[in-house]
Request: fold
Amino acid sequence: MRFPDGFVWGVSSSAYQIEGAAAEDGRGPSIWDTFSHAPGRIADGSTGDEACDHYHRHAEDVGLMKGLGVRAYRFSVSWSRVLPDGAGKVNAAGLDFYERLTDDLLGQGIAPYATLYHWDLPQALEDRGGWPSRDTAERFADYAAVVHERLGDRVDTWFTINEPWVASFLGYAAGTHAPGRRSAAEAFRSAHHMLLAHGLGAGALREAGARRIGVALNLSPVLTPGQLGDQDQELTPEDAGAVSRIDALLNRQFLDPMLRGSYPPELLEVVERHAGLDHVRDGDLDLIARPIDVLGVNYYAPHVVQAQPSRPGEPAFPGSEGVLFAATPGPATAMGWPIVPSGLTVLLRRLAADHPGLDLMVTENGADFGDGERDAERVAFIEAHVRAAHAAISDGVRLRGFLAWTLMDNFEWADGYRRKFGLVHVDFATQRRAERDSARWFREVIARNGLPAAPRPTLETVAARAGVSRATVSRVVNGEASVRPEVRARVQAAVEELGYVPNQAARSLVTRRTGTVALVLSGPRHDNAALVSAVVQYVTSVLEASGRQVRLMLADSEQSHRRVLAQAEGRHVDGMILLPPDRQDPLAERLAETEVPLVLLGGPLVAAERAGGGPVVAADDAGGGAAVARHLRELGRSRPAVLTGPGAAAGERVRGFLEVFPRAEVSDDAGRLLTGQPEAARTEAVRTHTVRPDAVFAVTDALALEVLGIAREAGLRVPEDLAVAGFGDGEAGRHTLPALTTVAVPVTELALALARSLLSALDGQPVAPSVLPVHLEVRGSTVSGGR
Ligand code: FCB
Reply:
């Protein structure tokens, strides 16, 4: 998946979120200094006083960007660093900083993109009325000219304002952002004045000779819950009204004045009701609609709404009475924002259709996903959105670049430092930066100008390998009888060596494609609920981003097995992912006999049994079992018991354990099936296993937790008398006392591997089985004083 030549990959940031040095070198306070210092405004009580200390560490940070290979860096200029009072006296030292930064960037071959306003209005201007006052828009134009005068010979891409909707409605209506006011009237006036500031600022920049001018808007498709699953769904007039009103408030309030020179009529009614229209003066719209060169699109999630007559308006959306902002089922980021990559494609297509000829750029996209450096979820999120962007480009959308939000963890506004959006992790105690997996992944994408794909052997490569003509290969592959046996054997050997799969694209000319794939869940999983939810989440988002519909199916009864089989046999789906293929479960085998590409989640044994079938993705269950066994041995335990359950994974875990701990040393009843027995018998069995040995390895965390309970009842000390280890998602046992030693299964990676394998299989590419490494997490249930 390659992007057009010259496509710009980069990262975005903003001044108050990273710079720190809040009172240094003559910087004046901004509304975010005031707001963050007021009690109770920021979730973790923090401020941006120090943030990432980027003011002093910009050279290191530019080095990080250079390391990623980005072509552009979009940063914002702090207005009150340049004009401490918002207007009047210029602080040369403030401009010096941006000059140093710009020169650093250029020195490393990175294009500086400057945003002039990312929410940090000088407090002095707020004191004189803030954005509800028209004067602020005029001061913005002066400020734009001052910055351009110093940097204009080196910065050629300018963004006037970042997300005016957020700045005006969260700042002045909902009050959750600086300056924290709560007035619908002021919010609408602010929005208009930000539009005006954009127009006046763009004018000042243009006059000064700026080459490329744009704006960065937060834009979201507005959909009903039904449209989330099916974009073409017909809406009731009420729902259509709700969608249109929120779209007018969120998107068209900004797009239409800037790009068409008018407000949407239905919006004007709302504005008039809340704020009157006096603040909109004759000629304003002409100023606002000055031509721009690029529209920056900040996309994170769609807005999902539906009509609900009795509903009061949302504070951030004055005018939204009668509209319910619906919770979205399905995957979400740690921030709770729904993950809907296809929304980006929908949005970009719409912008291209509504405003033909305008260059677009994704100026922000990224996600909050916890603190770790192994951030497969962030990779998945951005990858899915990169695919979604590519889909739009394939439709002819003029998308010129993709800037990830954001280079490094930073001050995430009202949420403080709890939110982690960085490709680079920041330890705020030491200011140490460390690349996450997502940074490494992004570097690869940039280097390739696209997403990596497995090389695909062609008929020609097979022909060259076998030393025959292409036509001969084609005849063998198509099963024609007219080929001599020794030639056939040679071709078949080459096909196997190269992993050639007949070209699916050509086939699809004759076979009907449905654009739908099925995700089949067979029954409750004993081993790992977190895995199932991760699979549902990532498989859905990755496959949807590739333009497919995902159909979720349950296969927990004979009847449902038949339904699933019928889907495959009737080719109602293009491919299937099945979990889990239990060894006692014939569904996998029967599906493998159909034509439909199938990917399984299962243990390596299952893979071996199905040699020649579809690709399998599995965790290294045996390796995990062995790791537990080695750990117990190192602790000097000599009489372990093993508690097992049904399913291939359990079998593999035990097998791995027994590779290290010979069966003879394991307590006699090892390996008995516990799950599925009547409650009393089962408890009794667990009890016997728990009381005699000096260690227990349970194949699931759930079972291990039972053991902990029984040990407590029996007066056994854990881990002194009995060491206990489980196997699972690493979460369930984190909060017990003592916490449970367990094998963490890389759920996100497994889920991603499933999705990617199916995509490759659908493309007709060869897909090798993948066995992913697991990780032993040692805690207090095996090592006293452990975490
Ligand atoms: C956008 C903002 C940016 C950051 C991301 C997560 O709305 O422009 O500063 O907060 O969201």
Observations:
- Confidence is low (pLDDT under 50) at residues 503-511, 670-676.
- The pocket of beta-D-fucopyranose is lined by residues 14, 17, 162-163, 166, 218, 298, 364, 405, 412-413, 421 (CB under 6 Å).
